[in-house]
Task: inverse folding
């Protein structure tokens, strides 16, 4: 495997907190609980067996039309 942080794979989940809780109940461990980010998305992070970053997020309206869009 190459060195570094690996690949980042994003999965958008409309009901992020619920999905994270459901995965945790099935034994999945997260590196970061659902957190509001400064770019106005809510994200939770974990790693796969190869160390790649898996990011579950909800961007909602801010994903397509952020307030800073011109």
Result:
């Amino acid at each position: 495997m190459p060195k570094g942080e690996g690949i980042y794979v994003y999965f958008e989940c409309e009901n992020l907190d619920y999905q994270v809780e459901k995965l945790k109940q099935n034994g999945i461990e997260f590196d970061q609980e659902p957190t509001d980010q400064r770019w106005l998305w809510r994200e939770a992070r974990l790693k796969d067996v190869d160390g790649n970053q898996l990011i579950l997020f909800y961007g909602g309206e801010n994903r397509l039309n952020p307030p800073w869009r011109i």
